[in-house]
Amino acid sequence: MKETRTKAKEKLAKMRKNRGFTQKEMASKMNMQNTTYNKREKGKIKIKIEEWEKLAEILGCNISDILEEDFGQIIICKDQSIGNNWGVNYNYTVPASLLESQQDLVTMLKDENTKLKNENLKFSDEIKTLEKYINENLK
Questions:
Q1: Buried b (16+ CB within 10 A) or exposed e, 99-125
Q2: How far apart, in whole angstroms, are the C-alpha atoms of residue 40 and residue 37?
Q3: Is the same domain home to 8 and 60?
Q4: Are 25 and 59 contained in the same domain?
């Protein structure tokens, strides 16, 4: 089981629909398969700048009218699987066991930090007590 986060290209899809094009027609004009175009429009595959330029030309608009940032995908696997990144999707796969061990480490560090803060307060109180004793007895 995996969780995937992507950002659809909403501006592109809206402009395509406003111009009366289907995804299949856009795929043909872009010289790619319909499924490939679909994945780009849904944000599952990064759109290269050259492709943005061609899309703008096809749609008869400025590139700024349709351009949206590609943040890539983050895939969190809960089944110990390892993903591939072939330079297209920017996929990062993190096995659940690694996430759990990192969360355990963070919890341990937080506990240690709390313990050290408490010890620091204890020593601070002891120093104040010693300073008070010195001031009272050595003057």
A1: eeeeeeeeeeeeeeeeeeeeeeeeeee
A2: 5
A3: yes
A4: yes
Domain of residue 105 covers 96-139
Domain count for the chain, please give it. 2
Q: Are residues 87 and 22 in the same domain?
A: yes
Distance CA 94, CA 86 (A): 16
> 100 and 41: one domain?
no
DSSP code of residue 105: H
Place of tokens 């590609």: 70
Q: What is the reported pLDDT for 139?
A: 65
| Residues recorded for the chain | 139
Per-residue model confidence as pLDDT tens digits over 22-80: 999 999 999 999 999 999 998 888 888 889 999 999 999 988 888 876 544 444 444 44
User: Letter for the amino acid at 28?
Assistant: S
Supply the DSSP symbol for 47: P
* pLDDT tens figures, 75-119: 444 444 455 444 444 455 667 777 778 888 888 999 999 999 999
Residue type, 40: R
Asked if 24 and 64 sit in the same domain, the reply is yes
Radius of gyration for the alpha carbons in the chain, expressed in angstroms and rounded? 28
